[in-house]
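Supplementary Note 3. Input sequence used for the single-chain structure prediction.
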Amino acid sequence: MAVARLSKLFIISHKSETEQILKKLQKASIPIEIRPYVESDEIDLEVAGFKTGSTEKNTRVKKALEIINQTRKEKLGKAATRAGKIVVKKSEYEKILKSENFEDIIETIFKIETEIKNLDDKITDLEAHASQLKMWSPYRGRLEDIKETETYSIKLGKIKYEGQDFGEVLKNLDENRISCEVLSDEGKIACVILVYHNQFKKEVEEYLVSLAFEESGLTGYKGTIRENLNKIREEIEFCVEKKKALESELKKISSVYEKPLTVYSDYLENIKEIEEAIESGYSTDKVSFHIGWVKNQDKKKVISIIEKFKSARVIEVQPAENEDIPVILENKPIFKPFELVVELYGVPRYYEIDPTPFVPLFFALFFGLCLTDAGYGIVLAVISLILAFRIKNAKKLFMMIFWGSIFSIFAGAIFNGWFGDLPSYLGMGDLTKKFAIMGDPLSSNEATMNFFRLALTMGVIHVFYGLFISFFNNIKNRNWPGAFLDDLSWIMVLAPLIIILLSSQIAVDMQLVTNPIFPPGISKYLIWPVIAGALIIILFRAREEKNWGFRLFMGFLNLTIVQGITSFLGDFLSYIRLMALGLVTAGIGVAINRIAFQFSSIPVLGIILLIIILLFGHLFNIVISILSGFVHTLRLHYVEFFSKFYVGGGKPLRSLKDEHKYVTIIE
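The predicted structure, written as discrete structure tokens, is reproduced below.
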């Protein structure tokens, strides 16, 4: 399979029907991208906005939901949930949207919240006043008596006399014609009542300033301090009770309207795409114009939906040259999970090859070699398969891990990896060794070299696989220079060089093979395709260069250094990390087992500790092995494999589909 072929549709609709048309297309669950019509020179169109305000409305709904959720101590227990969403029947979903007056509900919630905030502010203010009055509780008189008359002035306040003798302060007050009654005296601060004749007002006030006298600020009160405190307490109690009543009302609203408001919020999220499509399109006063991209096999369905509207027309048009056509990947179910690898890298351009079908086998194999543990593979296979069907949004990821874990079972079996070396502690070591046809790399040098050779061989095959894909794809696209001057020339150089190496004693000395695979005399025949391929690269690799001297220089660099033989050698050696990661996983597993079984001799507690260490230790090893294996396998595909035939950089089709963010609709 490959990139799906798309049709370009020109959609013309009366403004009164535009929104309904887009809603119909959204509900139809047909992958279609709606783009604004690009204004042409022949048609004079004006940009016109069309807003229903779903974004602003949804902000208000979310705020209302946040308010009612803050007042609850328990979550809504009766609402069934699936993957964090409210489950609702389709008929109920539609009924809720028709029956409820959401704006009135939201306004009621906001009004209650405002009242609660006002009550909180009032309670805070009253408590501040109460705190201020308590400071002056020794005063038993009436607060309205603290005033200034025509003849005399009475002031209630504090005198800070730190560093002075208070008796001396009182004496000075008397000398300045001020009568003083002390209400309290502690901490070098005295609360006092001062009385003086207004005849000496100016002199007295100047003296009080020098004395750092601070007035109480108790203005506007009537009656005694006790009476005022009692009144404030009553007001606070009233406010608290009123706040409780309002919070209780919010809880009632929550129990009745949380689900409808969540459904309404989900609906507003869903129609946002429609609004964006409407706003982005060009239009006249009465007509809207849009471009739709849809798969060829869905074209008739889309046209049928649009033509049911009286004031709408749809015309199929041809894409312009070099137009930015969106991309939909179409692959068989067994390949589909591995679309994730391509999507993370960047989907292909519309006319480019889709690498997805070439990924699964090697991705699963490399992931399995990174783990190389049959026990881990069995655990991962079961868990990933369960999660793939439970978490729909991550199905691709878990199915990739599932297929990788299947290969891990085989890799672990042939290299004797079963939760590290756990079978040897359980008396099953001889049984598992029967499957270990490649040996145990942690206990045998030969097995380690077998792993090394396997990883390197897989790397060579993978790189050549990429070259052959590029070669045949260029032939298919009639790109003859790319096929024969680029791809085939490198195959002519690399394949004979590898055969020459494997026929020599050097390969034996490097332990790549135990004995030469090919007869030594083959070298004198294979050197000629190497020379021919090298000459083609030198002469034509930089064929866009006009200067022949610079062309030959760049061709030589391309053969040797710049994306040349040294680059391919680096690519091949990168695959040795598969062995390294597999050995690390096995080594950690063996260490966990050794630590755990040291406690086996301790009665009862030792068995418990052994089980705990085995359980959490191997769980930890599985997690870090998945991460390292997944990342390195991605790297091998992106750097060593895709670079041989794939560019990417396409734009995924942004489908106008009916999605539900907060609810799960069931029939």
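The chain has three domains: 6-52+270-317, 147-215, 336-644. The CA atoms of residues 23 and 274 lie 7 Å apart.
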